[in-house]
Amino acid sequence: MGILTVFENISLDGYFSGVSGDFTWAQSSSHDPEWDQFVAGNASGGGILLFGRITYQIMESYWPSPVAAKRDPVVAERINTRPKIVFSKTLDNVSWSNTQLMKADLEAEICKLKAEPDLCITVLGSGSIALQLTQAGLVDEYHFVVNPVILGSGRTLFGSIEQTMRLSLKTSRMFENGNVYLTYSTSSLKESGS
Amino acid sequence: MGILTVFENISLDGYFSGVSGDFTWAQSSSHDPEWDQFVAGNASGGGILLFGRITYQIMESYWPSPVAAKRDPVVAERINTRPKIVFSKTLDNVSWSNTQLMKADLEAEICKLKAEPDLCITVLGSGSIALQLTQAGLVDEYHFVVNPVILGSGRTLFGSIEQTMRLSLKTSRMFENGNVYLTYSTSSLKESGS
């Protein structure tokens, strides 16, 4: 079976995005070589990146650009060559390299992908996709970068969850720039059938 | 100068309480001796505990009771003897040992207490008190126990903050029961004057 991971920057008050889609608060101001290495390592991981339209368009407008090639050459090269899927009913075409546009049923397509052995699929940002996959019980792991920031308002990932979900903490890692990386699995939920 | 700390259990989606004031999600189901020791250590710390009416009444109804003495004897003994203040305009009297009821201006009273050298004051729960003190710039540290739980809805601590607040991560500690204890200071905010 494949593994579906939801990877999100979150604020201390639980938002993955500002009200108007702002992500700049998740860009650390202090230089931290260990963090840079962590980001580059993530970008070079195997598997497919999965996006909704809004996050995709933010990423597509930055990573293939000359600015990204100059500012973040390692991450840009890796993310541009990585296989990517964007789910959107309104987009007609995509220009980012190695990207497939899917308009069909999200859950059905993800179930098909997850049937492939050892395939890793990672949702980045893309709140509505993350929520749909959470509600469908298709998420295996959540990886959160808890930023040392309180936003006060914003978009939450889990606004329509009706039942409390208990996760299993797997790892915790603290960075010099104040970020804390926490990984959780949903396996205990699935084992107990809740 | 004294130090004012806000100590809160939070869910992964940033709530410190369920919609109807529920805190049961923050009671770990799995036995973890290291966690029990951490809780007992916190309870025996010096300084004053500070409450709003709602959290105070929940605590007052539990800790002095025979159930608490049987179930959590160490924490009960320590928290019952610790000096406590509850701020409330509606309460007429308090029955919990070593508790002072204050009806006067919260900010002015806290400023007076903080003028005492080396006095530690800790807000537990008490969302509206925590918010008022945050907005008044009187909080020196936030200590969060991030529970491995997604609530979907609840009460947030920072719903009326209008400006993004950036904190300084001080420590991170992971527990077997899935809780992660994160401590932050606001000192960089105060230094930069924002």
Brief summary:
By secondary structure, the first copy, chain A, is an alpha/beta fold.
Per-chain topology:
Two copies of one chain form a homodimer.
Chain A: E1 3-10, E2 15-17, H1 33-43, E3 48-52, H2 53-62, H3 66-71, H4 73-81, E4 84-87, E5 99-102, H5 106-114, E6 120-124, H6 127-135, E7 141-146, E8 149-150, E9 155-156, E10 165-166, E11 168-174, E12 180-185, H7 187-192
Parallel strand pairs in A: 1-6, 1-7, 3-4, 3-6, 4-5
Antiparallel strand pairs in A: 2-9, 7-12, 11-12
Features:
about 30% helix, Dihydrofolate Reductase, subunit A, homodimer, about 190 residues, alpha/beta, two-stranded antiparallel sheet, 7 helices, eight-stranded mixed beta sheet
Q: Could you explain how this protein is built, in words?
A:
Two copies of one chain form a homodimer. With 194 residues, chain A is α/β, with parallel strands linked by helices. Chain A has one domain: Dihydrofolate Reductase, subunit A (3-Layer(aba) Sandwich), CATH 3.40.430.10. Chain A is 31% helix and 28% strand. Chain A contains seven helices and twelve strands. The first copy, chain A, has helices at residues 33-43, 53-62, 66-71, 73-81, 106-114, 127-135, 187-192, and strands spanning 3-10, 15-17, 48-52, 84-87, 99-102, 120-124, 141-146, 149-150, 155-156, 165-166, 168-174, 180-185. In chain A, the strands form two sheets. In chain A, strands 5-4-3-6-1-7-12-11 form an eight-stranded mixed sheet. In chain A, helix 1 runs parallel beside helix 4. Chain A is globular and about 40 Å long. Chain A starts with a strand and ends with a helix. The mean pLDDT of chain A is 91. Chains A and B meet through strand 7, strand 8, strand 10, strand 11 and strand 12 of A and strand 7, strand 8, strand 10, strand 11 and strand 12 of B.
